[in-house]
Design brief:
It is a single chain. This protein has helices at about 100, 120-150, 155-160; strands at about 20-30, 35-40, 60-65, 70, 85-90, 105-110, 115. The protein is α+β, with helices and mostly antiparallel strands. It is elongated.
Length: about 170
C-alpha cells in the first residue's frame, strides 16, 4: 500500500514492530556482495548481525548475552578451568522446529549445547540446586574425614610444600 500526496514523494508505510523487538541492521549476502538489511530482533538479543554476516537473511538467529556462568578449578590443576557451564537466551526465527523458533535457553559446557524450553530450564535449575546440596554434603564428609585423620589431605600438604607453605 502506498500513499501519495500532490507534490509529495511516495510514502511506504512501515510494518509494525512486534512488541519486545526492535529493528536491527544485519549484513547478508555472499562475501564481497553483502548488503545491510534491517531485521526484527528481540530486545534481549546482543548479537551484532553486521559484524557476523550471514549469506541469507533466513540464517540470522538471535543470541542473548551469557546470563549464567559456572566454572571450576581442580585439585590437580589448581589454576586451570577444567569444567564450565554457560547459559544464554536463543531463538532461530526460521527454524523448522517451532521450539527452536521460540525463545529458549541454551546450556553450553564447551562440548555440547543443550537447547531447553523455559519449563525444561526450570527443571534443570531445580536439579542443579539439588546437586549443589549433595555436593555440600560430600564436602562436609570430606572435611570431617580430614579432621579426624589429622590435617588436610596429602595433596594439600604437597601443595603447601611446593608453594612455600602458602596454600
Amino acid at each position: 500500500m502506498q500513499n501519495t500526496v500532490q507534490g509529495e514523494a511516495t510514502v511506504y508505510p512501515f510494518p509494525a514492530i512486534t512488541p519486545g523487538h526492535r529493528l536491527a541492521p544485519a549484513k547478508v549476502g555472499p562475501r564481497g556482495h553483502q548488503t545491510v538489511v534491517f531485521v526484527e530482533c528481540p530486545n534481549w538479543c546482543t548479537e551484532d548481525h553486521v559484524e557476523w554476516p550471514e549469506r541469507y537473511a533466513e540464517d540470522i538467529d538471535h543470541r542473548g548475552a551469557t546470563g549464567a556462568t559456572w566454572e571450576t578449578e581442580c585439585l590437580t590443576k589448581p589454576h586451570d578451568r577444567v569444567m564450565s557451564l554457560d547459559a544464554w537466551l536463543h531463538s532461530d526465527a526460521m527454524a523448522s522446529d517451532s521450539a527452536m523458533r521460540a525463545t529458549h535457553v541454551v546450556l553450553d559446557d564447551e562440548t555440547t549445547q543443550a537447547y531447553l524450553t523455559p519449563d525444561m530450564a526450570d527443571r534443570v535449575a531445580d536439579e542443579i540446586v539439588s546437586f549443589a546440596s549433595q555436593l555440600r554434603q560430600l564436602a562436609r564428609t570430606a572435611r570431617l574425614h580430614n579432621a579426624v585423620n589429622g590435617s588436610g589431605s596429602v595433596a594439600d600438604e604437597a601443595l603447601q610444600r611446593i608453594s612455600g607453605g602458602a596454600a
